[in-house]
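Person: At home tonight, work slowly through the protein below, taking as long as you need, and write a paragraph about the fold.
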Amino acid sequence: MQRWLKFSKYLPEAGWEPIIFTPENPDFDLQDITLEKEISKELEVIKFPIWEPYQLLDMVRGKKDIHAGRILEKRKTTLLDRAAIWLRANLLVPDPRIFWVKPAVKFLTELIEKGQFQAIITTGPPHSMHLIGDALKKKTGVFWLADFRDPWSQWEFLDKLPMQKIVRKKHADLERSVLGNADVITTISPTFQQDLEQLANRSVDLLTNGYDSSDLPPSFVKKNKSSNELHLVYSGIIDSIRNPMPLIKAMREEFLSEKANVRFTFVGRVSDHVQAEISADNWMSTHVKFAGYVSHQEVFDFYKKADVLVLILTNTKNAKGNIPGKLFEYLSTGIQILALGDPKGDCAKIIEDVNAGQVWTASDYVKIQIHLRKLFEEEGSIQALASIDQYSRKNLSFQLAKLLDGNSIS
């Protein structure tokens, strides 16, 4: 959400006035209403009703945990859970937002034919948004930029679903149509860029996520670290494809025999499985705390208390190209980063290029322990980052504007 919220904020400075078309009553797993203040009063927002099958399941179950991702994280699932996952996998193609496509296309076609838009941008997932763009392109010929924040047919999430082969082929066919018809294709990482170029047999533009310097509170000052103490902070979601336990176990192993001042704080939603494993261990339950979900602004209060910011990358087939938006927010604080993931991945390349920290694989158990001990003993400002201006939201918005300028009349 922040990716296009920020583009909308800075595109006017680059000569483009965005209009946001969004569901009026979307079913989101997590919401942060404090981000509403990011929306300019001059920004036009068109809200259009949407019906989603999750809303029906909410009524049947009387619960709000029926999203596929949340169900897949459960250690025990009910018959209704399994039925919901099968239906999601095989009937809701490409995703539960599919019921928004036809009414949205009808509504937007009328506006485009009246000359209200010079270009349209769709971003996915959910990849149903790209089907809206594909239909509008075919109907009106409007300039269309398709933005892929994650892969589609090669997306690791689809591998976890009980999907029939014919349905998987349908995903690939829909993706092929989008890749063939969009005027410009963008994505967030070099690996995803290369993968999409191979699928589409055409060029794909790299447009990474970034940071907004205005997000940092005026009073923000990073902590001056003292020796013989270490406070690790992780901000974000811990789910079935992000496993922090190798890092926490290495921390336990390294400091178990001493009364060291070491702490690990999770800020955000953490899977029940990880919380249960930590709670079952005396040392872990003492040194690891769960702050829960907080607003985007409140998270900076936790950053101010951190010696090191932790990034847990996915350990699945898309891991190499996974560059979470959280990385750039971490970079903006100037606090050192310790990441668990692929040391040869796109995320590691950025961290190395700007001298922001270290990336370890989960199997680098002893090396992680040694690194934790080094961080524990260090004092003061650990290191200075290289320039990160190329990742500012404002600069990235001007890059996006160039893509629009070069392919349409503004």
In short: The first strand starts at residue 19 and ends at 23.
